[in-house]
Each structure stands twice: as structure tokens, then as C-alpha cells.
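Quick one, C-alpha cells below. Sequence please?
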């Protein structure tokens, strides 16, 4: 009886997996590899860090890309970008450390916010300036 229950529990997971693979195929037409996604991430927040670029040393693939970032505090990180999100994989450019068990972040903003107070300040100021500009536009 118990085995039957376990099998029933597995069935929805298998169905979900099939949907996921269909979704991945669909997404593959949109983003051939994670390099394009990584370039977009870099372009989004480059203004708020000292340096940030997609790694040319570590391999990019359909499902993974690596981004090097140097915060304004001069700390260097290598980030892994996958469907699961972004996470720190090393404390230097173009490196990965399998022993590091860092959490995934859904967005680059969340990740950088946790790593760099200076990023938080610069990003916050840019947001305030944009809001002020919108406010002026709506008043004119």
C-alpha cells in the first residue's frame, strides 16, 4: 500500500519534468545559451560596480554562464548564472570552487545587495534620481 502512495507522489513530479523540458526547448529558441542572459545582467548593473564582465575563460553553455564582478569595495567574485539564478562560485575572477555552498539569488540586484553596501547605495541613488525625473515629467 505504501509503495503505491509513493508511486502516486512521483507521477506529478515526472509530469512536471516533461513540461520543464518542453519549456526549456521553447526557451532555447529565445536564449541559445546563457551568455546572452549574462551579457544582459552585466549591462543592467555595470554602472553600480567597479568592473563586471562575462568570463571568457570559463565555459558558457546553454544552461550556464559565468560572470566576473568586482564591487566598489574591490572584492572580486565569480558568479554562476543558471536557470536557478545567480550565486557566488569563487572569490576571484574566472574561478570555481566546488566546496563553496552559496545560496542562489533570483536576481543580480539581490545578489549584489547582499555582497556590496556601496552597490546598494549607488543603485539606490540612481533609483531616486530616476523617480525625481519621473516626478518632474509628470508635473510639467
Amino acid at each position: 500500500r505504501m509503495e503505491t502512495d509513493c508511486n502516486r507522489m512521483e507521477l506529478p513530479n515526472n509530469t512536471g519534468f516533461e513540461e520543464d523540458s518542453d519549456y526549456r526547448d521553447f526557451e532555447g529558441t529565445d536564449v541559445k545559451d546563457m551568455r546572452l542572459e549574462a551579457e544582459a545582467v552585466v549591462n543592467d548593473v555595470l554602472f553600480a560596480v567597479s568592473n563586471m564582465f562575462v568570463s571568457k575563460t570559463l565555459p558558457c553553455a546553454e544552461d550556464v554562464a559565468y560572470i566576473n564582478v568586482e564591487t566598489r569595495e574591490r572584492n572580486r567574485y565569480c558568479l554562476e548564472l543558471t536557470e536557478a539564478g545567480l550565486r557566488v562560485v569563487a572569490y576571484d575572477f574566472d574561478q570555481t570552487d566546488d566546496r563553496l555552498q552559496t545560496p542562489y539569488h533570483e536576481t543580480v540586484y539581490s545578489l549584489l545587495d547582499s555582497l556590496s553596501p556601496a552597490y546598494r547605495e549607488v543603485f539606490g541613488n540612481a533609483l531616486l534620481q530616476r523617480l525625481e525625473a519621473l516626478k518632474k515629467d509628470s508635473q510639467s
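The helical segments are 2-30, 34-45, 108-115, 117-139. The chain is about 50% helix and 15% strand.
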